[in-house]
Design a protein that fits this description.
The chain is α+β, with helices and mostly antiparallel strands. The protein has a domain of 164 residues: Chloramphenicol acetyltransferase-like domain (Chloramphenicol Acetyltransferase), CATH 3.30.559.10. Helices cover 37% and strands 21% of the residues. It is built from twelve helices and 15 strands. The strands form three sheets. A six-stranded mixed sheet has the order 5-6-7-2-13-12, with helices on both faces. The chain has a six-stranded mixed sheet with strand order 8-15-14-11-9-10, sandwiched between helices. The chain is globular and about 65 Å long. The C terminus is likely disordered.
């Protein structure tokens, strides 16, 4: 039995009929010479062999009379209830795969079982199949999600057999005495926890207030755009891949980081999209950028994250000027994050009991309050470092993975990037009632990378140093 943290419980309670708080990953695997039947058997066998290694895949929720729910092993777990087999229409391809992902993203996960599902997708191409994995954000964040996926893969096509049995024996269910102790423990710790959270949030709030006149972008300070408003239940998805070497070349030439370059090309793509739809930005947007706060002792489940707030200079026409503005924004964002202190999201979640947060979130959603108030941020942009070596599953090689994070009320577009080997795969998640043409964004992103590379080659090297020193050059 493991108690959900306040932040994990908030992700659980904050889900509404229109704000789905699950994350998705679409994996493409190369399996030449393997029939569709053989591909599906490989998918089933690999899940059956290794699902028990990932705690969120074998645990379900158990509510308590008071306090946060707990995770317990599900003794009645049936993998077949979580696995699905779909066939794309003739021709397949990424667009058909994205449409299938859109359908899957548009429905919440059932709460009567472990909070995940997986789809085997046949018909992507003659020698490829896809897996769409879906798991609730209360169980994993971006970093723990990537590590969880890695448990299903090997480092070579035909590894040596792993000794031991894949048979899983669930832990015993907690009895009444154990559950009672958990309730009493929550009652004892809650007052002190609230005092600590209140003190930390107050201190962070004062920091935000003192920095209002600085260059650091703040929540609720961005302009309202067409993609900011109340969500509907529908989702739309688009995918693309960028060459990591292109981003690194700009980084080397202009003295930026790969993160800065990626943020700059996202800003340029958004500018192109907005202009195409008759919006001519006059000031920067505000991007919410998730940041991992996970430590070695935190394990690989649950959420350990915060948000930085970046200024996206969509009002600037020149790609180089946008990149330089992003670099300045990154310095200000890091300074604000450092001053505000770590654990802010966990502390905020600790002030609102999850039993109260759920009805409040549903009420605000039904009132469409996001149509009337300024958006917390305009867009969510997440960048996760993935493995730089090839991964295999039963002889099939992972070709790429497209990540997709959830949307929040008022924020109808999210951009999630993950690196794998020599590419950066980008997944766009949108509410189609706010972003009707999400398929235009991949093309805009590629056009912006091309423009950035062209301008960098003309501009030449610069004396500007990277504003964030990242050992991995990202």
């Amino acid at each position: 039995m493991e108690r959900l943290s306040d932040l994990d419980a908030a992700f659980l309670a904050g889900e509404t009929p229109t704000q789905h708080l699950h994350v998705l990953a679409t994996l493409l695997l190369d399996a030449p010479g393997l029939s569709a039947e053989g591909q599906y058997r490989l998918f089933q066998q690999r899940l059956a062999e290794r699902f028990h290694l990932i705690a969120p895949l074998r645990r379900r929720l158990r509510e308590l009379p008071i306090g946060n729910p707990v995770w317990v092993d599900d003794p009645e777990l049936q993998l077949d209830r979580h696995l699905h087999h779909v066939i794309l229409p003739d021709g397949g391809g990424l667009e058909a795969l994205a449409r299938k992902s859109s359908e899957i993203a548009s429905h919440p996960l059932p709460r009567d079982r472990p909070l995940w599902e997986a789809w085997f997708v046949e018909g992507v191409s003659d020698e490829q199949f896809a897996v769409i994995a879906k798991i609730h954000h209360s169980a994993v964040d971006g970093v723990s999600g990537i590590f969880s996926l890695s448990a299903f893969f090997d480092l070579e096509p035909t590894p040596e057999p792993t000794p031991g049995s894949a048979k899983w024996d669930p832990d015993p269910q907690p009895d009444a005495a154990e559950l009672g102790r958990a309730v009493l423990d929550d009652l004892r710790r809650r007052p002190a926890s609230i005092r600590r959270s209140l003190a930390a949030v107050t201190s962070s709030g004062l920091t935000f207030a003192r920095m209002r006149e600085t260059s650091a972008p703040l929540p609720f300070s961005g302009p309202r755009q067409s993609f900011n408003g109340a969500l509907t239940a529908r989702r739309s998805v688009a995918y693309t891949r960028l060459r990591l070497d292109d981003l690194k070349e700009v980084r080397r030439t202009l003295g930026a980081t790969v993160n800065d370059v990626l943020m700059a090309v996202c800003a340029g793509a958004l500018r192109r999209y907005m202009e195409e739809h008759g919006e001519f930005p006059e000031r920067p947007l505000v991007a919410g950028v998730p940041v991992s706060e996970r430590r070695a002792e935190d394990g690989l489940t649950g959420n350990r994250l915060a948000f930085m707030f970046y200024s996206l200079p969509v009002h600037l026409a020149d790609p180089i000027a946008r990149l330089q503005a992003i670099q300045d924004s990154a310095v200000a964002a890091k300074d604000l994050y450092t001053r505000a202190g770590t654990g802010l999201m966990e502390n905020l979640a600790g002030l609102a009991p999850h039993r109260a947060l759920g009805p409040l979130a549903r009420a605000l959603s039904s009132l469409r309050l996001a149509d009337a108030v300024p958006p917390v941020v305009n867009v969510i942009v997440s960048n996760i470092r993935g493995p730089d070596i090839p991964l295999y599953a039963g002889g099939a090689q992972l070709a790429t993975m497209y990540p997709m994070g959830p949307l929040a009320e008022g924020v109808g577009l999210g951009i999630t990037a993950v690196s794998y080997r020599d590419d950066v795969s980008v997944g766009f998640m949108a509410c189609p009632d706010l972003v009707p043409d999400v398929n235009e964004l991949p093309e805009a992103l590629h056009a912006e990378v091309g423009a950035m590379c062209d301008r960098a080659s003309v501009f030449g090297s610069t004396t500007r140093d990277p504003t964030i020193d990242e050992p991995d050059e990202r």
